[in-house]
Structure formats: structure tokens, C-alpha cells
Amino acid sequence: MLLQDKVAIVYGGAGSVGGAIARAYARHGAVVHLAGRTEATLRDVADEIAGAGGTAHVDVVDALDERAVDEHVERVVARSGRLDASVNVISDRDVQGTPMVEMSVEDYLSPVVTAVRSKFLTARAAARVMVPRRSGLILYFGGRFDWTVCRRFSVGGLGVMFDAVESMRRQLAAELGPHGIRVVTLHTGGLPETIPDDFAGRDELVKALTDLTISGRPATLADVGEVAAFAASDLARTVTGASINISAGAAFD
């Protein structure tokens, strides 16, 4: 299998994107450690993975807590013997729909601070155990932000957060590459499946995301999981410092 004997942590593993990645990793043979703040929802994903024949562990971890992140990575290595992939897709606490000039500074900075802090902490903890083995993947979710969205909808600090994470990805890739560690983000252009059914204007948003693509078929959660599995595999050993574009042409490189 593509990820046989590999070990991965998925921060935000109970969410729609994190769950999709965790399921794909387990399906391809990886031992998955689901990390998040709510045990019950993490357990649901772990039970589903186990029911399909995979292996998943559950750990309650606040990815914004420096000590908790460091200690968790140590436990993962003690439990599974290694760490091959660290995936961070936790919620970034963004506030949208309010014009920038009407927002509080706390709401505007919330996604930026949350994303940068959590992704720095999880990447640093992973790198410290990956460097001695001279291999590993640090994977984020986001990619280049389409600022034309702001003409139609107020996104708050979300776009700044995306750009900040991309800068972090480049810096980490440059520093960790000589140690055999790859750093990648996935860029989807939007996932209709993640939009709640009760979200006002859901149909219009799904149509907008679909119309942006060339194929008329936006990426699905299953697509995200499979590409994430490829990124963590030895087949992607030359892919680092890059954003993998799975936007179906919604964004051109």
C-alpha cells in the first residue's frame, strides 16, 4: 500500500477535511493519530477507520498549547516508533461577512494568530523528531488566496492567514529541506461538501465555486484525501516548498 508502515498525526482529525485525510491515510496503510480538542468526534472518525480495517489513535490536544503539542509528539513516537507526516487542518477561527473597516482588531487577527501559532508549533514539534531520521512531511491546507473574492464578500483576516501560512511553508521547506523533510500545502479553490446545509446562500455559493472551475467539478473531500496520501508517499519525494493545486482550474499557477 502507498503508506504502509508510515505514521501520521492529523491535527483537526475530527473535521471534514481532517477526517477525509485521516481515512485516506489509514486506507493506504498508515497508522493515524487523530488530534483535536473534542474526544467524542475524534472517536467517531477513529471508529470508522477501525471498522474499515485501519489503525487510528485518539488524543485530545490543543494545537495552540506549546507544551501539549510537544508532549503529544513525544507520545506518538513512543507509541508508534516514528513520525512520517504531520498534517494541520485545525479550524482557524475566522470571522467573515463583516467589512474590514467595521471589524474589531481581535476578529481580524484571530485566524492569522491561530493559524500561525498552531502551524508553527506542530511543525516545530514534528521537525524535531523527523530531522534525526532525515525524512518526513509537514502538510497544510489552503494555498494562494484569491483576493478578488473581496469584491463580493468580506473575508476578514482569512486571506492574510492564507498568505501567512504560504510564507511559513516556504520558509520551513527551505530550512528543513537539507534534512530530508518536505513541506507542502494543498490548494482546492473551495469544497462544496464542507458548506453546511443550513448556511444562508449555500446553493449560490456552491454554484459560484463550481462555476470557477474549468471542468465544472470542484474537488471533493475524497480528492483531498487521495492527494494528501500521495503527498505523504515516497512517490512525492521530489515535491516540497510547493502548493499542490487541486482546484480543477479555479486557480491557475
Automatic annotation (TrEMBL):
Listed Gene3D superfamilies: NAD(P)-binding Rossmann-like Domain (3.40.50.720)
Annotated Pfam families: adh_short_C2
Transmembrane intervals: none
InterPro entries: NAD(P)-bd_dom_sf, SDR_DHRS6-like, SDR_fam
Signal peptide start-end: none
Keyword flag Oxidoreductase: yes
Keyword flag Oxidoreductase: yes
UniProt keyword list: Oxidoreductase
Family: Belongs to the short-chain dehydrogenases/reductases (SDR) family.
Protein name: SDR family oxidoreductase
Taxonomic lineage: Bacteria, Bacillati, Actinomycetota, Actinomycetes, Micromonosporales
